[in-house]
Amino acid sequence: MKTDKDWFKASKEGLAALVAGKPKSFILRELVQNAWDEDITTCNVDIKYKGGMVELTVEDDSPEGFRDIDHAYTLFADTYKRSDFKKRGRFNTGEKYALSLCDKAIIKTTKGTIIFDDNGRNETSSATKGGSVVTMWFKATKDDYDEIMQSVDALLIPDGIKFVVNGKKYNYKKPLRTFHALLLSEIKNPNTGMVGKTRRKGEVHVVEKLDDDTSAYVYEMGIPVQEIDGSYHLDVQQKIPLDQSRESVLPCFLKELYAVTLENIHDDISEDTSGETWISEGLKSKKVSKETLQDVITKRYGEKVVVADNFSPNSIDDAKASGYTVLRGTEMPKEAWNNIKKHDLIKSSSKEFPQYDPKIGNGCVPNNKENLVAEYAKRLAKRFLGLDIKVDFYSDRNPKAKAARFGGNTLYFNKGKLGKRFFEEAISEETTDLIVHEIGHLDGNHTDMSYHNLLTKLAGKLTMLALKEPEFFDVTTW
Fold first, then answer.
1. What is the DSSP string of 227-275?
2. Tell me: the pLDDT tens digits for 126-165?
3. 366 CB contacts (<8 Å, ≥6 apart)?
4. Is 12-170 a CATH 3.30.565.10 domain?
5. What is the C-alpha separation between 307 and 293, in angstroms, rounded?
6. Are strands 390-395 and 410-414 parallel, antiparallel or unpaired?
7. Which pLDDT score is estimated for 137?
8. Which of 175, 193, 247, 330 is the most exposed, having the fewest neighbouring CB atoms within 10 Å of its CB?
9. pLDDT tens, 401-441?
């Protein structure tokens, strides 16, 4: 019987196949994050490309070097980083993924040196006096090399670390805002020894995306994890819930991160950026405040805004005609609308512009002057539109009531709004203006182009009628 104390063995080729499709920049990212997790002040990176091979060296000045050099080649070994939510590592797999793609690698640290090559793994006692030096050689194309170099620009250098790549120093970017938030994290439970999700209060750095930044990212302590929509990088200064590839976060975490970020920087958001997707996502949170909601709504839609009441199309038209932005349900997520309703921030079009049915108003019997105005309206409608319309009168002094309405082939005059003076002359600028305005609604509402086209057509016809047939306007012949 053959016995082996180890239950598992790992295949370098099999592991390489799993990560072969990843951008080669992940190798740089894994080595850099390992260095940044240590107590260092300097991190030097050297990247060379020649003959289809990249030579990548990352050197740091950690006084202790590798705490356990066996971790360089042991998958999923327990690591102190799992218990520290301020450290990036937790799976102890990153450098092994990188090693799987290498033709050769040398890790030299305070505990000794490990050489990986065609002969396998060789350990020597040669050690550094301080710090670690990791060099890896792996096959790559020129495009791979260029992608690695471009990925350096996406790193957010921690404050207090001198970071140099190929002789060029990369500086710490001061955040636009820094705030504390209780966010989902994942660490090892000291009682159970299991790695699980928990909540920890940590800092979030909001870094403005520069013009030459192609994308914004969610970061885990300076290491880009997931591309996001927006004008800001969000650098979370603690472990965040990741998959083993370190390329995506949990959707619930992202939603929560958007919400707390919006709550803390909404006053920095401009009108131009207020429509970004991450802001809409942040508005879904039940924790978003009334002040934040109002600020975003104002920046995105302006001071004058209503929600369309589809059961009251005239109120929608009145809102548009009054310069209001009319929102539909698709403008924002359902959860955001629930928050807006909770705080009563946006009125419906029908509430802001209540409609009055003239037929419900107080019916009035017209006097002689009012009858002349009614006759004038009927004559214009018949002459220009071929319509035999009715004219009714009512009285409604409500501030929201209209002076006149046209619908159902009937023109309604509201005496309560027009007053006696309006009817003193049957044919006047005021009566002509109002009649043409109302019968023009035969072809649409105030914001419809068809309505405006009919108004100009009526104006032209009315002018020519006045020039060619002035007797049409002689009320004594009616």
1. EESSSEEEEESS---B-TTSS-B-HHHHHHHHHHHHHHHGGG--TTTTT
2. 999 989 999 999 999 999 999 999 999 999 999 999 999 9
3. 374, 393
4. yes
5. 15
6. parallel
7. 97
8. 330
9. 889 988 888 999 999 899 999 999 999 999 999 999 999 98
90: amino acid identity, one letter:
R
- Between CA 274 and CA 246 the distance in angstroms is 29
| pLDDT value of residue 95 | 72
- Both tokens assigned to 194: 């299991």
Q: Output the six-digit token pair for 30.
A: 């894994």
pLDDT in tens, 27-80: 999 999 989 988 899 999 999 999 999 999 999 999 877 765 655 544 444 455
Structure tokens at 463: 């002018």
Question: Which range among 18-22, 135-139, 174-178, 308-312 shows the weakest confidence by mean pLDDT?
Answer: 18-22
Rounded Cα–Cα distance for residues 96 and 30 (Å): 9
Question: Which regions of the chain carry the CATH code 3.30.565.10?
Answer: 12-170
CA nearest neighbour of 82 among 192, 195, 184, 185: 195
Which candidate, 160, 179, 173, places its Cα nearest to that of 237?
Answer: 179
Answer whether 52's CB lies under 8 Å from 141's CB: yes
Nearest C-alpha neighbor of 204 from the set 229, 184, 221, 225: 221
User: Distance between CA atoms of 403 and 314, rounded to whole angstroms?
Assistant: 15
What's the farthest any 2 CA atoms get from each other in the chain?
125
Q: What is the 8-class DSSP label of residue 242? A: B
pLDDT of the residue at 74: 47
Query: Which CATH fold topology does 358-477 show?
Result: Zincin-like (3.30.2010)
Kindly report, as residue ranges, where domains of CATH 3.30.2010 are found in the chain. 358-477
Pairing verdict, β 325-327 and 305-307: parallel
d(CA 118, CA 426): 105
Q: How far apart are CA 368 and CA 409, in angstroms?
A: 22
How large is the angle between the packed helices 290-301 and 251-265, nearest 10 degrees? 80
Burial status of residue 405 (CB atoms within 10 A of its CB: 0-12, 13-18, 19 or more) = buried
The count of other CB atoms within 10 Å of the CB of residue 195 is 16
Question: CA 82, CA 76: separation in Å to the nearest integer?
Answer: 11
- DSSP 8-state secondary structure symbol assigned to residue 267: G
